[in-house]
Amino acid sequence: MKYTKMHGLGNNYIYVNEFEVKLQEAELALIAVKVSDVNFGIGSDGMILIGPSRVADFRMRIFNSDGSEAKNCGNGLRCVAKYVYDRSMTHERHFTIETLGGIVHVEVHVDEEAVQTVSIDMGKPRLMKKEIPMLGDEDSITINESVQIDGADYQMTVVSMGNPHSVMFVEDIEQAAVNQIGPTVEHAALFPERINVEFVQVQNSHEIDFRVWERGSGITMACGTGACAAVVAGVLGGHLERAKPITVHLLGGDLVITYADNDHVYMKGPATFISDGVFYLR
Ligand SMILES: N[C@H](CCC[C@H](N)C(=O)O)C(=O)O
Question: Does the keyword Transmembrane helix feature in the UniProt annotation (predicted)?
Fold first, then answer.
């Protein structure tokens, strides 16, 4: 199986071009687990398929390293945009990508004939419990509320960017127990489809530090949809400025996120090729 490895701020995936490689639907979860394994496979945070769409210019599907399929991936979208432009699958600098979480509009920024940075309109955040999904009154929202999980209380804001995120603000990001709290919240019964877990330290009204425990992948260097959710939570919580570019410092580098007055979230950041290769499935 031909693949391309790419990363967005160190959040790396194995990209498979469905225009060239045909995979069986029933095998996708297992292939994602296999390619993600750093010892028995290639090593990545998961697998992303780039394919045709009937409603957009391209379609992206994302599978976590545990084989679960997610509905969106911000870092992945930037890499898909770079891939299709740099490999002349489109000559447009503005185009659309379909995800299970909705259609996004992307703009590639080209320098020396290749895409270095990508801007994406990630659409509107979803806050109601029925949109997360989260148990409880389905039309209610969770903004900086104390939520009890396994007898402990967690102060969180819950936001979907097509995929679910539990955002918690901390005094000192270096002290955040990401490895312990992450899986506890990810697997809480409160979240029927599990959830991504973000830890945020506010530096000032336009800058945050960010760590993430990803549903289905664990700790990653960066999470684009998580960064969007964190900025939405920060604005709703009164910590961050609305309609202003917010710098999000992730382990792998910085993203610039703007939660605009039109309720859309805009993300800008890099996308990077690592390698092309062949993976032996059998
Ligand atoms: N790393 C991705 C998010 C993956 C989300 C996945 N872990 C899920 O189950 O939602 C990003 O850059 O947005």
Answer: no
